[in-house]
Specification:
- The chain is mainly alpha-helical.
- It has twelve helices and two strands.
- A hairpin with a 2-residue loop joins strand 1 and strand 2.
Amino acid sequence: MQFLKLSHELITDKNITSNEFRVYTYLLSLYNAEKQCSYPSIDIISERLNISISTVKRSIKRLEELEYISIEKRKGLAGNFNIYKKLKHLITTKVINKKDKTPKVGIDSNGEKPLNGQISVEEALENIEEEPRVQSKQASIDNHNNVRMARAVTNIDNSNFAKKILTIADEELLREAIRNFKKRRGRNATFLIQMLVDEYYKAGIKFSQGMLNLLRKGLKFQNIDQVSVAYCY
């Protein structure tokens, strides 16, 4: 399960329709911090949000007019596609200095300052001990949600390569791959990864460079070079 932080300004925004809001937040959810952009296809946005392609196009045009996003058009072997950058309401992680003892004003659940005698949410939480952050890399892989889903249908723990692929794979595409894996009565983890690769092809979603490198090492695709050209940005 994935979570997305949304700003109060965006949630209460009256300048956009509900469909424009859905398209925009979907782009926010797919933001790649390393590449500083989102790049889902129009078809994928339409399919995931269950709205028409024409509505998706109108929504994207409106969001660009409002300067909520900027669009770069690219050409690839798989066809033309958009790169979405400069997402206005993107929330990035901030590092909080615990030595800073400046009193916090805080707000309540309605977005207002707390009444006299109340404490802010920040003050209520600041004394709660944080959970241990140190976790081994392997434990993080083993407990990844995608790995747990795959473990329900095959013995994924026999293939560390497959588990690494799953930790960086699109969750929705993996769900579809698992459904096809069951239909075809797949048995091993390698076959599941092949099903996953097929879903990337069908959806027109590009592999990340890390995923492409793992595929090169772990699977012997005859057309892996074409994959790198057409599906890796």
